[in-house]
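User: Sequence recovery, please. Input:
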């Protein structure tokens, strides 16, 4: 197990990208301001206890995506100093939290779970490639993880709470080296393939 700062250093070397600081410690005042802003939006929106309709035959991942979108759409109108907006491109982060009075943009990753258990050791993938982070954000870079806690009912999900994790350079992370392919790589790769 390593920490987020060490992970990004190793990742940049692996990607053969120039060294960069991709995670910074949260200043207490900023952390409190973001917490207050989101707490205010949660209270004003009345999102806690609301029911998010779920499409029939949805997978767990699809339910999570529907819950995340439902919550963000309810919170957006109630932001005053910060605005949640999409972060263009694939990969980490899903969204960004932009400060309206400055150029500060905070990577915001969304997750949703119906089974928050502080002893659970199942993986929750946070980030892989550094490309999007390097392209979209300028130092200092503060990372925010928002987890929507919900309860499944027959055809909807009840929103129970919003958890915020203000990730630090010292935040512990599990690191796993992965290899992946896509259709283009498979179609043009130097290996044998056959369609039957």
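Assistant: Recovered sequence (196 residues):
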């Amino acid at each position: 197990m390593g920490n987020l700062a060490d992970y990004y250093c190793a990742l940049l070397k692996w990607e053969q990208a120039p060294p960069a600081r991709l995670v910074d410690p949260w200043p207490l005042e900023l952390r409190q301001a973001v917490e207050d802003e989101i707490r205010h939006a949660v209270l004003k929106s009345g999102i806690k206890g609301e029911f998010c309709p779920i499409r029939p035959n949805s997978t767990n991942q699809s339910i999570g995506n529907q819950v995340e979108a439902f919550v963000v759409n309810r919170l957006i109108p109630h932001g005053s100093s910060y605005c949640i907006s999409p972060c263009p491109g694939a990969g980490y982060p899903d969204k960004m939290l932009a400060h309206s009075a400055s150029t500060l943009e905070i990577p915001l990753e969304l997750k949703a779970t119906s089974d928050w258990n502080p002893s659970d050791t199942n993986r929750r993938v946070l980030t892989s490639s550094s490309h999007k982070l390097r392209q979209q954000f300028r130092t200092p870079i503060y990372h925010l993880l928002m987890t929507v806690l919900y309860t499944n009912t027959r055809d909807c999900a009840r929103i129970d709470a919003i958890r915020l994790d203000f990730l630090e350079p010292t935040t512990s992370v599990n690191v796993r080296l992965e290899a992946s392919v896509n259709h283009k790589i498979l179609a043009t790769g130097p290996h044998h393939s056959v369609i039957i």
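Helices lie at 4-14, 28-45, 60-75, 131-136, 183-188.
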